[in-house]
Amino acid sequence: MGIIEMYRTTNEKKYLDLAQKLINIRGESEGTDDNSDRVPFRQMRKVIGHAVRANYLFAGAADIYSETGDTTLLTPLNAVWDDVIHHKMYITGACGALYDGVSPDGTAYKPDTVQKIHQAYGKAYQLPNHSAHNETCANIGNLLWNWRMLQISADSKYADIMELALYNSILSGINLEGNKFFYTNPLSASDDYPYALRWNGGRQPYISKSNCCPPNVVRTIAETSNYFYSQVKNGLYVHLYGGNKLATKLENGSDLVLEQVTNYPWEGTIKLKIAKIQASEFSFFLRIPAWATNATLFLNGKALAVKAKAGQYVAVKRVWKTNDVLELRLPMDVQLIESNPLVEETRNQVAVMRGPLVYCVESPDLPKETNLKEVVIPVKSNWAPKWTKIVNADVIRLEGDALSYSPKNWKYTLYQPLKNQSEKKITISLIPYFAWANRGHSEMSVWMPVSR
Ligand SMILES: [Zn+2]
Question: Which of 249, 298, 312, 332 minimizes the number of CB atoms within 10 Å of its CB?
């Protein structure tokens, strides 16, 4: 990525040549899965390696494709993307399940070929929660890679992943006050989990040795505005939603000043107000997130007949005038999400999402003497969105009914007969995952057992 930026800045071909060479020599000498170069890049079909290095590599390769149109790079890029998104990514958009992995793991008996990998993508469906590594930088790498895939394809599936990572596994990397950081982003925390993981112990004010995540997450938040819009010959793509002002010159030569007015992701109404334009025909391409079935569009207060299909960009073309208001309404329904049953760690469990936000249960929000592990979500729960303050931030929590079971004694016990436990109806509050670990020591879980 850096060398391609040098090329774009200086226009000197030697930088583009160097970037291509760095891809071409991968796997030529003895490489490792740790560096994603055991095989030549063009032969890669699965993601195995160190998650940060892999995601940044894919982002750089996508950059080379965008400058050269070398289609031989697209086959591996599409294949590893499918592998990550369909087999190895957490519901939060986080990448790199394992602190330490090995490969190949259990698929071939050739001990001399087995390699150790640090901060590894695991096997397909291997997604532990307590011990999830999910380095903040790997999650940022997921954003950078998907941003580049979006640039070369205009396919909204990439913007969906960008938004998922931004609001969940990237934002979780920094606390609400902005002065403490996570290196790893697990999906659950339990005081009973017996491993002293290298990165246990809450958020850190400074991460020694590899102080990569804190500056990386801060600069990513600072540059988020760069990811909102793209221009094409006949219009303007709107990838992300959030209050902002855009002043630009369209490719057709018209000046455009656009104001995006919204309280997204807390609320689903997004208004694009044209503050200034020379009358000009072009299209707005608005991303309809894959979760947003029944999105609707309005122009100057009147419903538009355009079909806003989930998981696509919807085009609205007309001669735009100053003071036109294009309004998108996204349904912010609460959804219970289940995982592929091959993810053993989350079988018969659900996660709760509202819009792009993943929610979690955290111990400070539980009724007294409720054990987080004994909380069960009935499938027909109603969830009421309610404003609340966590530290300095106004966020929407979800209040709903759950069941709590009397705790069992699991000390020195790995298995025990199933007995009836007394059941209690309780009201719980879920908070956005990114906002956890801001109120002192806590237990937390994104996934909760479901009662059907
Ligand atoms: Zn890092």
Answer: 249
- The residue type found at 398 is L
Asked whether the beta carbons of 398 and 359 are under 8 A apart, the reply is yes
Instruction: For the chain, report the end-to-end CA distance as a whole number of angstroms.
Output: 48
User: Are 308 and 288 contacting, i.e. CB atoms less than 8 angstroms apart?
Assistant: yes
Cα(154) to ligand 1 centroid in Å equals 28
pLDDT of 107 reads 78
What's the gap in Å between 166 CA and the centre of ligand 1? 15
- Run means of pLDDT, 10 residues per run, the chain, 452 residues: 97 98 94 92 95 97 98 98 98 97 83 89 96 96 98 98 98 96 94 78 76 92 97 96 97 94 98 94 97 97 96 97 98 97 98 98 94 95 97 97 92 92 94 97 96 93
Nearest to 98 by CA among 159, 54, 59, 56: 54
Distance from Cα 98 to the centre of ligand 1, integer Å = 15
Q: Say how many Å lie between the CA of residue 417 and the centre of ligand 1.
A: 44
Nearest to 285 by CA among 227, 324, 240, 247: 240
Q: How far is the CA of 141 from the centre of ligand 1 (A)?
A: 10
Cβ(433)–Cβ(359) under 8 Å?
A: yes
Q: How far does the centroid of ligand 1 lie from the alpha carbon of residue 118, in Å?
A: 13
**Phi, psi angle pair for 242, to nearest 5°:** 165, 150
Give residue 200's pLDDT: 67
Cis amide linkage into residue 194, ω under 30° from 0: no
The DSSP call for residue 106 is S
- Buried-exposed string 318-339: b where 16+ CB fall within 10 A, e elsewhere: eebeeeeebbbbbebebebeeb
| Per-residue model confidence (pLDDT) at position 106 | 81
Question: How far, in Å, is the centroid of ligand 1 from the Cα of 283?
Answer: 39
pLDDT of residue 280: 87
If you measure from the C-alpha of residue 172 to the centroid of ligand 1, how many angstroms do you get, rounded to a whole number? 13
Domains of the chain listed by start with CATH number: 2-205 (1.50.10.20), 227-329 (2.60.40), 334-451 (no CATH)
What is the Cα Rg of the chain in Å? 23
Q: What is the pLDDT of residue 210?
A: 66
Q: pTM (2 decimals)?
A: 0.97
Å from CA of 142 to ligand 1 middle:
13
DSSP 8-class letter at 438: -
Tell how far the Cα of 216 is from the centroid of ligand 1, in angstroms: 7
**How far does the centroid of ligand 1 lie from the alpha carbon of residue 135, in Å?**
6
Which residues, by Cβ under 5 Å, contact ligand 1, an ion? 135, 137, 212-213
